[in-house]
Structure formats: structure tokens, C-alpha cells
């Protein structure tokens, strides 16, 4: 039984409001279940040896659901509770991204395990968003978004600049801090990278990585002229020695141009 045949069984089990997208050797299954911040949950199905693996694709760790997996003791206790309840396993890859997953050798078990992982993701996003908002991190992000937005508006054509914009508005799955239409047929994607601590800063880098990779897999790929990451060098979480490997990956694996906020004038030649 191949992955698409299994997906047909899933639709028969849960209804027709499910979609798929092939991602290499994995099948992204876009569920009709939304998080508390209105993001539809995706899970990823792959075959590894004799086992079927259902994972979150690293999206919780990467910040795709626009929440941070915190390090607070109370939050971790809740995380472990849900992991135990749903029997979720985890693995960390070479880039430090955590993948939450379930696996089974029996195709008949896939719909129930997929549903369990979906509920796990919903619960973790809810807890992350509601119970453990880090005031310092929130203020750091809001401050940088505000000053970066104002700077971009100071030298760009306001008709060409879109802030807090989805790459494909009707799909609402890939959002950038700014999208600049250099010409009618080319655009630049802009991510702001910041954080009040090393943890939040590296998480911000990981999120930028994922968004640029998703853009490269999208129908808009041919229109992308440049990918730009604006690095908040004034943030408390900016510690170059600890972030060097993350920034190297962002630059060399996604083709993103890294622009330090201390050298923000470079943006004028990049975007215009």
C-alpha cells in the first residue's frame, strides 16, 4: 500500500476535508483541524524500512505555528504530559530542530495515530500561546517589527511593499514580515530575525529557514528575486558565537542574504 492509498483510507475514516502535498519522500497531510491561532495542522507521513512514520515535520520546533516551544519548567511538565498521553516520541536533527513523531508497522493504525499527533500539536500550540507568553520576548519582537517596518517604509515605494504578508494570500500558510515587489514579475521576501534570549533568537532563525524553504517549494518560486533576513544585532539574544552555525545554515542552505541591523543601509540597494 503506497502513501496516497493510505491517505484515501484516512479521508474515508475522517471525511473529505483533508488535502495532501508531496514533499520529497514524505506526504504532507493538511488536516481540517486548526490551532487556537488559526493555523491548520499539517502532519507528515513517510515509509522508513518496514515502519510508517507520522511526524510534525519539525514545525513545532521551527515556529511555523507562530509559537515558541518554551523552556519553562511548568510548560515542559505539560509538554511531557501530552507526550506520554499520546505516546509521542521525539528526535533532534543536526540543525537542532526537534521532530515529534509516532510510528507503526501496520497501515491500519495510521489514521488513529495521525489523529493523535494532530491533537498533540493542537494542545501544545494552545498551551504555548495562552499560558506561557514571555513578556520580554513579546516586547523584543514588537519593538523590532516596529522599527524595521518604519525603516523599510522610509525608502521603498509604498505600493510595492506589503508588510506581514502571506506569499499566497488564498492559502495563508507562508507569511513573511515583508514582501517587496521589485517589478511586476519579481519579488523579495523579508524575514526579521530577533529574540530576547539565545533560545528565542535561534528559534527565530529556524523559523526563517523553514519559511524560505517552503517558499522555494511553492508555486511562486520562479518570481522570487531575493530572500533577505534582517538580523536584530541590538537584541539581547544576539550572541554571534552561539548563533554562528544557525546563521551559516540560513545563509548557505536557503540562499538568504543576511543583513545586520547595524548595517541596515544595505537594504536600500538590495530592495531597490
Tell me about this structure:
- The protein has 272 residues and is α+β, with helices and mostly antiparallel strands.
- It has two domains: 3-130, Yope Regulator, Chain: A, CATH 3.30.1460; 135-271, Restriction Endonuclease, CATH 3.40.91.50.
- Helices cover 41% and strands 27% of the residues.
- The protein has eight helices and eleven strands.
- It has helices spanning 3-14, 59-62, 73-86, 110-130, 135-155, 198-216, 240-254, 266-271, and strands spanning 19-23, 26-34, 40-48, 51-55, 89-92, 98-104, 161-166, 175-183, 186-193, 224-231, 257-260.
- It is globular.
- The relative contact order is 0.11.
- The mean pLDDT is 87.
Q: Globular, elongated, flat, extended or rod-shaped: what is the shape?
A: globular
CATH class identity of the largest domain: Alpha Beta
Q: What is the makeup of the main sheet?
A: 6 strands, antiparallel
Task: Please state the CA-atom Rg, rounded to the nearest Å.
Answer: 19 Å
Instruction: Tell me the CATH topology of the largest domain.
Output: Restriction Endonuclease
Total domain count: 2
Quote the beta fraction.
25-35%
Uncertain runs: none
Amount of helix: 40-55%
Tell me what the CATH architecture of the largest domain is: 3-Layer(aba) Sandwich
Amino acid at each position: 500500500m503506497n502513501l496516497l492509498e493510505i491517505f484515501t483510507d484516512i479521508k474515508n475514516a475522517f471525511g473529505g476535508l483533508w488535502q495532501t502535498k508531496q514533499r520529497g519522500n514524505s506526504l504532507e497531510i493538511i488536516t481540517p483541524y486548526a490551532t487556537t491561532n488559526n493555523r491548520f495542522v499539517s502532519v507528515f507521513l513517510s515509509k522508513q524500512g518496514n515502519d510508517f512514520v507520522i511526524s510534525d515535520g519539525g514545525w513545532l520546533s521551527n515556529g511555523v505555528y507562530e509559537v515558541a516551544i518554551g523552556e519553562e519548567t511548568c510548560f515542559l511538565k505539560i509538554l511531557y504530559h501530552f507526550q506520554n498521553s499520546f505516546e509521542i516520541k521525539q528526535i533532534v536533527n543536526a540543525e537542532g530542530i526537534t521532530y515529534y513523531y509516532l510510528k507503526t508497522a501496520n497501515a491500519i493504525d495510521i489514521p488513529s495515530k495521525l489523529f493523535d499527533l494532530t491533537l498533540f500539536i493542537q494542545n501544545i500550540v494552545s498551551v504555548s500561546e495562552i499560558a506561557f507568553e514571555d513578556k520580554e520576548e513579546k516586547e523584543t519582537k514588537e519593538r523590532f517589527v516596529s522599527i524595521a517596518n518604519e525603516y523599510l517604509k522610509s525608502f521603498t515605494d509604498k505600493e510595492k511593499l506589503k508588510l506581514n504578508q502571506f506569499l499566497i494570500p488564498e492559502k495563508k500558510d507562508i507569511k513573511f514580515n515583508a514582501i517587496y515587489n521589485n517589478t511586476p514579475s519579481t519579488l523579495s521576501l523579508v524575514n526579521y530575525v530577533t529574540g530576547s534570549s539565545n533560545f528565542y533568537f535561534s528559534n527565530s532563525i529556524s523559523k526563517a529557514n523553514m519559511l524560505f524553504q517552503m517558499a522555494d517549494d511553492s508555486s511562486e518560486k520562479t518570481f522570487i528575486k531575493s530572500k533577505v533576513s534582517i538580523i536584530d544585532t541590538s537584541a539581547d539574544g544576539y550572541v554571534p558565537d552561539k548563533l554562528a552555525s544557525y546563521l551559516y545554515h540560513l545563509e548557505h542552505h536557503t540562499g538568504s542574504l543576511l543583513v545586520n541591523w547595524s548595517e541596515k543601509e544595505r537594504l536600500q540597494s538590495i530592495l531597490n
